[in-house]
Amino acid sequence: NFGRQRGGSLSARHVLVTAGPTHEPIDPVRYIANRSSGKQGFAIAAALAERGARVTLVAGPVTLPTPPGVTRVDVTTAREMAAACWAALPADCAVMVAAVADWHVAPAEQKLKKGAGAPALDLRPNPDILAELAARADRPRLLIGFAAETEQVVAQAEAKRARKGVDWIVANDVSGDVMGGDSNTVHLVRADGTEQWERLAKVEVARRLADRIAAVLA
Ligand code: CTP
Ligand code: CA
């Protein structure tokens, strides 16, 4: 697809993208989740593939079609997402867009019954896939995380970038109707400063980010 190409090509580059929520089961019929639709991550995978990258898209439970030319691996839980990411390495770049559940529980084998009283959920931390990826020997050369924030968006994203040891953080203002919607307000936080972006369609956020990635990797 040459029509869409802007800036450098990403051919011969492998990019890992995570997208969507994770679901953490509580019992056979219930789970912990979040409002991520997967739209932003899928749009990024599509934009990278349009530029010629080989893209592995590790997707949580979403109802979206696989973008053309993208290799998709479907997962449910954060621990499955971590394993799928490690299996996809090595990669030149990783864009971790997924809204990974921060906790899981040991699920009950049978459906919990309300007659037994409200169950206490014993929440245990999930692996931080992005932080673990940053610490690996086979860390991608360009490692990009998202930071979903509802307040002090850029300041929290800057702290998150340093704490997680990643190159760029896409600071995502998720107050309002971002989750599930078609547009997004993001800022690109790098070590040398922050680029403020206006509110854009998610597909346009994806194209701009692909531009920035291609400028580094091409
Ligand atoms: N992330 C991840 N694995 C997790 C949690 C988050 O890979 N278990 C990644 C997300 O995909 C995102 C980045 O880390 O790229 C930041 O996610 P976010 O939820 O904003 O940050 P947390 O570090 O989980 O902190 P908090 O939710 O407390 O703000
Ligand atoms: Ca989190």
From TrEMBL:
Co-factor(s): Mg(2+); FMN
Pathway where it operates: Cofactor biosynthesis; coenzyme A biosynthesis; CoA from (R)-pantothenate: step 2/5; Cofactor biosynthesis; coenzyme A biosynthesis; CoA from (R)-pantothenate: step 3/5
BP terms from Gene Ontology: coenzyme A biosynthetic process; pantothenate catabolic process
Residue segments, region Phosphopantothenate--cysteine ligase: 15-218
Alphabetical keyword list: Decarboxylase, Flavoprotein, FMN, Ligase, Lyase, Magnesium, Metal-binding, Multifunctional enzyme
Record field: catalytic activity: (R)-4'-phosphopantothenate + L-cysteine + CTP = N-[(R)-4-phosphopantothenoyl]-L-cysteine + CMP + diphosphate + H(+); N-[(R)-4-phosphopantothenoyl]-L-cysteine + H(+) = (R)-4'-phosphopantetheine + CO2
EC number: 4.1.1.36, 6.3.2.5
DNA/pantothenate metabolism flavoprotein C-terminal domain location: 11-215
Cofactor note: Binds 1 FMN per subunit.
Any one Gene Ontology molecular-function term assigned to this protein's record: FMN binding
Residues the record lists as binding CTP: D102, K111, P127, D128, I129, L130, F146, K160, K164
Gene Ontology cellular-component terms listed: phosphopantothenoylcysteine decarboxylase complex
Known function: Catalyzes two sequential steps in the biosynthesis of coenzyme A. In the first step cysteine is conjugated to 4'-phosphopantothenate to form 4-phosphopantothenoylcysteine. In the second step the latter compound is decarboxylated to form 4'-phosphopantotheine. Catalyzes two steps in the biosynthesis of coenzyme A. In the first step cysteine is conjugated to 4'-phosphopantothenate to form 4-phosphopantothenoylcysteine, in the latter compound is decarboxylated to form 4'-phosphopantotheine.
Family to which the UniProt record says this protein belongs: In the N-terminal section; belongs to the HFCD (homo-oligomeric flavin containing Cys decarboxylase) superfamily. In the C-terminal section; belongs to the PPC synthetase family.
Annotated protein name in UniProt: Coenzyme A biosynthesis bifunctional protein CoaBC
Species, as recorded: Sphingomonas guangdongensis
